[in-house]
Amino acid sequence: MSVDIRAATRTELDQMMNWAAAEGWNPGLNDADAFWAADPGGFLLAEDAGGMAACISATRYGTGFGFIGFYIARPERRGQGVGLALWRRAMEHLSGRVVGLDGVVAQQANYRKSGFQLAWRNVRYTALSPRLVGDGGGAGQVVPAATLPFAALAALDASVFPTPRDAFLRAWIAAPGHRALAVMRDGAAVGFGVLRPCRDGAKIGPLTAMDAAAARSLFDALVVGIDGPISLDLPEPNAEAVALAEAARMQPVFETARMYAGPAPAVMRHRIFGVASFELG
């Protein structure tokens, strides 16, 4: 059965979200609008007589970076080359850019064939009711992120992400139901984080902070009063992030491989206490 590959519409992105939910990825309730804001042309699908046969995101950030996600095929179309054809189109779409992805560990060998190399592992920690961790004093004042100049939040994000992603960030912070907070210390923003409601419970991400005290203060303010389960996706090499999750009595439940095709971007990984999204980076 032949397929046509084309850009997805905004409505079809909602179907991609439903597929992600069926895979157990537990997407946020309002992810789609923010994802679409990041790159409306970055969602591709393969279509056959039965409708959507496979999907993928190939999000373009700036002029030199891209990110792959949402790589899913309809169960009965798996193993027939449909997904591979869509993958190749996505990589063509991002040609000339450094490309990142968060893939399941079992697929690392396949991604290496496309030129991807492992940078680190991301681990999802989850708890039904996380314990408050405390900041040890001196973290600063937690305020709504919307009260800060956007430039202050964008500057923090720029230290942990390879290129500006202002359109995504603005939509992510302002999305309905998202709890977006920041930490101010000595008149400067030293961290910010977002908690979003998901199909089941909630996820924290991004959680970006200059130090562990700011991250812990944000974590406590984000989770208080929220029904679980609550998940936090963190880079395993950041020992302070792992310590935070363990102090909150969260358990590792899933992991991905952060991989790049091209030179791994220079980011301040010690500031990454929570990844925004496995689908868009």
From TrEMBL:
Residues 3-135 form the N-acetyltransferase domain. It holds the Pfam family Acetyltransf_1. Coiled coil: none annotated. Signal peptide: none annotated. It comes from Teichococcus aerophilus. The lineage of its organism: Bacteria, Pseudomonadati, Pseudomonadota, Alphaproteobacteria, Acetobacterales. This is GNAT family N-acetyltransferase. SUPFAM superfamilies: Acyl-CoA N-acyltransferases (Nat). PANTHER family: SLL0310 PROTEIN (PTHR47237).
